[in-house]
Amino acid sequence: MAAQVNLDDPITLRITWDRLVSISEEAATTLVNMAFSSIVREVGDYSCLLMDAEGNSLAQPRTSIPVFIGTLPATVRHFLKKFPAETLRPGDSLITNDPWLGTGQLNDVTIATPVFIDGELVAFSGSIAHMSDIGGTLNMGSAREVYEEGFHIPPSKLIDGGRPNEQLLELFLSNVRAPDQVQGDLQAMLAANHVGAEGLLALMGDLGLHRVDELAATIHQLTENAMRRAIADVPDGRYEASVDIGDFEGDIHVQVAIEVSGTDITVDFAGSSPESAYGTNCPLCYTYAYTVYPLKCLLEPNLPNNEGCFKPITVTAPEGSIANAQRPRACEMRNRIGHMAHAAIFTALADVLPDRVMGHSGSAPVTVDVLSGTRADGSRFVENLCVNGGTGARPHGDGVIAAFPGNMSATPIELLESSAPVLFEAKEIIPDSAGAGRYRGGPGQRMVIRNIGDRPVTHSMFYSRMRHVADGVLGGEPGTPNRVLVNGEPHPQPVGRHDLTPGDVIDIELPSGGGKFPAAERDREAILADLAEGILTPEGARRAYGWEG
Amino acid sequence: MTEKAEVRDTFRWRVGFDIGGTFTDLVLLDDATGGTYRHKTLTTPDDPSEGAYDGLVSLLELAGLQAEDLTSLIHGTTLAINSLLERKGARTAFVATKGFRDVLVLGREYRYDIYDLDGSPAPPLLPRSQAFELDERVTAAGEVVRPLREEEVVELARRLREEAYEAVAVLFLHSYAWPGHEREAARILARELPGVSVSVSHHVSREIREYDRGVLTAMNAFIQPRAKRYMARLDTKLRGGGFTGDWLVMGSHGGLMAPSVAGEFPTRIIESGPAAGVVATADFAKKGGHQEVLAFDMGGTTAKACLVRGGEPSITTDYEVGRADRLLKGSGLPVKLPVVDMIEIGAGGGSIARVDALGLLEIGPESAGADPGPACYAKGGTEPTVTDANVVLGLLDPGSFLGGRMTLDVEAARTALARVAEPLGLSIEEAAWGIHEVANNKMAEALRTHAVEKGVNPANLTMLAFGGAGPSHAYSLGKLLGVREVYFPAGAGVYSAFGLLTAPPTSDFVRADRRRLDEDIDLDAVRAAFEDGFAEALTVLDATGADRGAVRREHLADVRYVGQGSELTVRVPDSFLSGGDIAALVGEFEEAHRRRFGRILPGVAAEVVNWRGRARTEAPAVASPERAADAEVAVGHRTIPVYLGRVPGRRDAPIVHRAALPVGRKIDGPAIVQEDECAIYVGPDATAVLDTHGTILMEVA
Questions:
Q1: A9, A12, A20, A22: which to substitute to probe chain B, counting the most B Cβ within 10 Å?
Q2: Residue span of the signal peptide, if any (chain B) (predicted)?
Q3: pLDDT tens digit string along B535-568?
């Protein structure tokens, strides 16, 4: 065994750290490649994390979104409360999907596998993944309490000393629509945890390490120092802004106040709407995740993901606020609040960080439509449809068509049509939609879907930008709204589920992103290029930019 | 290495020539003895066939041969990849099903770097203004919802002619399974637009997913006119010079194809050059009986690696060209065709070291490139690079670089290294050691991740190292991975050109066909899919002059559990094809799944997503010339102080010239084995020995 690693040596630390990140990426690759859940693959709603024996994070993959960076360590601490270290043994794996102990919704399952050396607990290898199905009503966001949203697993042993907890598994799998897939997703997570644990043990062996808590502390400290330096560059002050989105019963208000003081930032959601009677409720863990993500992008995007990065940032919201919803509120659509935090944060900080902010994202909150029903041969189908609107104008350029702050790739239409009896008449860019500005937003997108089967197709959707479009920043213009037509008639409230009868056509316009800086500052060449590419029509160019040719 | 050719009347000479970005490498092989002549000449970018032809003439002169004496020429080329990277191709129109002209521009709607707010997906190959639509539509089940109208195609052709398009890419939805409309459109467009290249999607790829197939079709159309012209020009030149044999082109999949096919489908030769190095590694593996070999190729800007198992290169269909960030998936354009799986594992010799925001040492992504190059080149570079670190550590002999034609400036390297040493509080040597170690560890990590994906234990690998910087890093990288045996082939500088001569003619196909494996299977339909694919593949092979009787057929399938997101490619057992033995196919899948994920899911049904096939002839047997065990030759009397880390500090290591190394004589590390374009670092606990085939084996303790 090699000598004890010297953490003061910047070379050794760099190499050790790279290797930790790499191990977490090996775990993540295993999870993504084996996973059944399309949300894991397409939306990146998963994470793999290596932690010390107390749950402090060591490393996370570079590619997965930091949503769960704060949640997994917290979940492990909840596990340890119920299953103290001395009760854990090799071959155990712990599971929960409790929204308030986990990630804010039932669909995300957390599994943590304790790692032992000579019988002593030294680390955890954990993963979170969005299950293919969790039971519940599938009626997007319309549940009134969390009980309606699916199967709930309190912190439990999924594997006990190498023996699967058959009773729990059977109970779980009997409560979901796709037991094979869910079983596969659980196995993929266990496979990923195993890869993470083995990699960590190999590294500890190579370095002669018996504990990793000191390593975790060193890594966090360096990261925290770098983050604090970045925050120190932002002028002290209190910066406020708010945004609104539509919901079942009207508007939801998201209000932030950002207090920058020295090397600390506090983000408070006081003044936001109270808890919703429906599923648009955000437990604080998720509010936190989507608050620190845009802040990291603004402040120090290249820092590694660990709690050190977020230690200088405090996120608060009054209990009972929509950004800190309490048990047993329904919270399936928590992303609708989380995804809007970026907009309020960008506007609040626009004046002090004008070079770094973006226009508001038209692809926030991210939307995933679900098409389900029965084919002509009687077989069932359930397909997710991911299509994005435009992002806001980027710090130094135009917006694009992609999800932000989520990151969801588009569903290939050929794949969807191969499974569901629908036909896409179009999937195309909407001209003249992009929020104008020196840098314009990403344009909106339109899709037209026809039921070509002989029985109804159930379509679930949740569109929130009917009245409230993505705003511009620093004088940029707003984007365009959602619009949904069924057989040419405007759909009054495109939330929840409805049936498309055979021959029905649904025409959906996805919102565009907001611009940045006044439209009058837009480069002539850029306007000409947009005209040539059909992003602008001559009429649209006149309207948006006063373009006379 | 070989005596002047005495026997002029026996056709036994073949030439491999590999046109790279900077150099064109040529190897002349005597198939009777395995003897080679090698030649390196500068690439002529305006017309690469020019430099290649001149190089060929020089090579023949060197060997005392005439063009008539050659039986065949094998060509590796960067033509396709350069066209794509530089975006220099034909003026191309993209024609899609009505409602889908934006397929290329919308792309995957994915941000490859989630933290970089200024990052954006790879720009589309063709802009929206060059996209057109035709009002046709076929469903996934093959039902024609709207027929293709000839008059509409004719009208579009008129417009494309007026707008002076040189190429057309056609993408109709579901044509991977129902190509009727695309065939019809191709026929009409060819008739209406003489002289314009037409690529239709089902011809280029039979895989489902409109974006991936569309990008590939657009790429094909975009580079096709240039590729066709190039192949014709080279042919004329070769024939004019008296060459009467066959010439073939190396494909990205590691097999050979006729120049006519390469011209028609230039998307199949995108990784022509790198594939050759991997194929050479496969040849090495087969000859030496090495089960698992890692090809490690480290040059000036990148380090790449490929696994070769059982003498077969690892092949991927998940490849991207033109990545904005070379290590980030999704930042380039997808190429869903079989490509040798040569993954980027890290920085090259020119990559620049710096201190990052955390106060730690970081390498790359910036590179000093060839100009100004590393500081030690003394061409104006001031940033510390990986090569500068190697010079300071004594891994490169300043006086022997490029055969002594260039002297490395050690002081300049030290000055550059001070830029990272000072802020880190390290000595120059410690900083250099750190750079070397960090670079090696990053590569080791990338390789470990890749190995996990492939279900391989890195410690079981044998390494074959080549490229300008590979031999300097092979020892340390091998050590980190637990690799015991590292080989350095003879002529590592022209190794790819040599690889061209070891490849067999090969043709691949894929047929999308989703079928569950827990119910009765329509075996006739499966056989028909394979028959159809092999018929196409054989036509491609015929053009290479391959003997149909000698063609080997491989049946493969992409299989997954029903509902799983990604597939594993497995062999289709004979018992399945002949008698519908579903259990045997499921068994192959479960074995692969267990290898990759350490587990299977009993009771969960599996399904096939694609059938794949590969037709090829045997790889040509290339003899290895035996070298007599030399009489004792004087081994280096010069030494260089090599830095071995903080504790041992520097130790004197002998400098041995490879050409002067006697066969069978064991060199103990630390030592430097010097070649013209690279230097092998033999570590303190390693030994190196030259075998009778001219290969050096380094054994690491």
A1: A22
A2: none
A3: 999 988 888 888 888 899 999 999 999 888 889 9
Q: Which amino acid is at B624?
A: S
CA distance A238 to chain B (A): 24
**Does the beta-carbon distance from B357 to A302 stay under 8 Å?**
yes
| Residue B98 touches partner A, C-beta closer than 8 Å | yes
Q: What is the 3-state secondary structure (H, E, C) of B443-484?
A: HHHHHHHHHHHHCCCHHHCEEEEECCCHHHHHHHHHHHHCCC
The interface pTM score, or ipTM, of the predicted complex is 0.93
Who wins on pLDDT, B36 or A39? B36
Please give the radius of gyration of chain B, using alpha carbons only, rounded to the nearest integer.
27
Is A375 touching B (CB cutoff 8 A)?
Answer: no
Flag if A427 and B597 touch (Cβ within 8 Å): no
Domain ranges of chain A: 10-211, 231-356, 358-549
Chain A: nearest CA to B335, how far in angstroms? 16
Cα radius of gyration rounded to whole Å, chain A:
24
Give domain limits for chain B.
1-75, 85-228, 506-616
* pLDDT tens digits, one per residue of A373-385: 999 988 888 888 9
Per-residue pLDDT of B285-330, as tens digits, reads 988 899 999 999 887 777 889 999 988 888 888 888 887 766 677 7
- How does pLDDT run across A403-413, given as a tens digit for each residue? 999 888 899 99
Q: Please report the pLDDT score of residue B37 as a whole number.
A: 85
The pLDDT tens digits of the residues spanning B464-494 come to 998 888 899 999 999 999 999 999 988 776 7
Contact between residue B26 and residue B56 where contact means Cβ atoms under 8 Å apart:
yes
Domain range B85-228, its CATH number among 1.10.490, 3.40.50, 3.30.1450, 1.10.287: 3.40.50
Q: Helices in B513-612 by DSSP H: which ranges? A: 523-542, 574-579, 582-597
One CATH from 3.40.190.10, 3.10.580.10, 3.30.420.40, 3.40.630.30 for B1-75: 3.30.420.40
Strand, helix or coil for residue A5: coil
